[in-house]
């Protein structure tokens, strides 16, 4: 077998999406595999005549008491000379709690966390305590990871592209996937952007009372920004730069590129610019284009 990948990490960090990425690439995939069976599966694929050349398995705290043996199993794989890679997924505590709230799923360790704190135990607090327990269990694995990915700022689609970029063989994805990610500097720069462009030099629609509650997705704001002095010169410099860089990244085998476009709040100027760029590159058909507006729904600051 040419590639055996073990996927682990925090509950709610995106392991299912990561496994789907490997499945789309033709890997034999198994979810929630107890650690004791990982070695047997890897050895089975090593047998001469096996038709399975690539496999990915998810092993996490859903395995209960058996999960404690994952570190030992990985050591045994290494000692036996069975090649493998470990993909570790994590996210910030706030993001993980919110994901469980949105999906209304139970954390695998929530019952234990609730039993430890039976009084005044709201759902958010129970999940937070479960995450703390999970972190202790995962820490030895984090140190052994071949690749670690923080999924806090990643949508499901973007996570799959990042996994493909970092874990899949070159040439297995096809077209370069380009994400234009807008953000507000006051909310922090994105963690996973490959390129960052600051458009705060353009006039800010926030200071126009009728435009402030709108976003760059609204026609009035788009017309305001696109009529700004200097914007044509900006496009005249930026587009040739991207036209040069994107093929260079593609030539190096990169599968996914995130281009951050930032303004003060991430609601007006950056959104207009990113939408303009996305339309331009999508119309060419050379890339898989995606747009993510990270901060567009956050309330505008007071003047």
Structure description:
- This protein folds into two domains: about 160 residues, P-loop containing nucleotide triphosphate hydrolases (Rossmann fold), CATH 3.40.50; about 120 residues, no CATH class.
- It has ten helices and nine strands.
- Helix 2 links the parallel strand 2 and strand 3.
- It is globular and about 65 Å long.
SSE layout:
Blueprint: E1 3-9, H1 15-24, E2 28-30, H2 35-46, E3 54-58, H3 70-79, E4 85-90, H4 93-103, H5 110-116, H6 123-142, E5 147-150, H7 156-167, E6 177-184, E7 195-198, H8 219-226, H9 231-251, E8 256-263, H10 269-284, E9 288-293
Parallel strand pairs: 1-3, 1-4, 2-3, 4-5, 6-8, 6-9, 7-8
Helix pairs in contact: 1-7, 2-3, 4-6, 5-6
List low-confidence stretches. Answer: 114-123
In the CATH scheme, what's the topology name of the largest domain? Rossmann fold
Give the fraction of residues assigned to helices. 40-55%
CATH superfamily of the largest domain: P-loop containing nucleotide triphosphate hydrolases
DSSP, total strands: 9
In CATH, what is the class of the largest domain?
Alpha Beta
Briefly summarize what is shown.
The protein has about 300 residues and is α/β, with parallel strands linked by helices. It has helices spanning about 15-25, 35-45, 70-80, 95-105, 110-115, 125-140, 155-165, 220-225, 230-250, 270-285; strands spanning about 5-10, 30, 55-60, 85-90, 145-150, 175-185, 195-200, 255-265, 290-295.
């Amino acid at each position: 077998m040419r590639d055996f990948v073990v996927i682990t990490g925090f509950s709610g960090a995106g392991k299912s999406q990561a496994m789907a990425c490997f499945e789309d690439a033709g890997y034999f995939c198994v979810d929630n595999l107890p650690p004791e069976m990982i070695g047997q599966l890897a050895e089975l694929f090593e047998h001469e005549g096996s038709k399975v050349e690539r496999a990915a398995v998810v092993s996490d705290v859903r395995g209960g008491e058996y999960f404690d043996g994952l570190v030992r199993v990985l050591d045994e794989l290494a000692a036996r000379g069975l090649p493998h890679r470990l993909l570790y997924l994590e996210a910030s505590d706030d993001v993980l709690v919110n994901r469980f709230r949105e999906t209304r799923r139970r954390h695998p360790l929530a019952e234990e966390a609730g039993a430890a704190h039976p009084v005044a135990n709201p759902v958010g607090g129970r999940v937070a305590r479960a995450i703390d327990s999970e972190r202790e269990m995962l820490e030895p694995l984090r140190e052994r990871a071949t690749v670690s990915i923080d999924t806090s700022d990643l949508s499901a689609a973007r996570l799959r592209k990042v996994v493909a970029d970092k874990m899949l063989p070159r040439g297995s994805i096809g077209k370069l996937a380009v994400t234009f990610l807008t953000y507000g500097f006051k909310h922090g720069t994105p963690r996973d952007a490959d390129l960052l462009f600051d458009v705060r030099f353009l006039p800010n629609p926030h200071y126009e009372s009728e435009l402030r509650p709108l976003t760059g997705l609204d026609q009035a704001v788009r017309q305001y920004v696109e009529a700004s002095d200097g914007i044509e010169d900006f496009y005249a410099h930026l587009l040739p730069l991207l036209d040069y860089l994107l093929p260079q990244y593609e030539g190096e085998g990169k599968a996914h590129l995130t281009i951050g476009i930032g303004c003060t709040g991430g609601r007006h100027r950056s959104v207009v610019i990113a939408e303009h760029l996305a339309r331009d590159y999508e119309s060419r058909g050379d890339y898989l284009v995606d747009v993510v507006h990270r901060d567009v729904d956050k309330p505008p600051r007071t003047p």
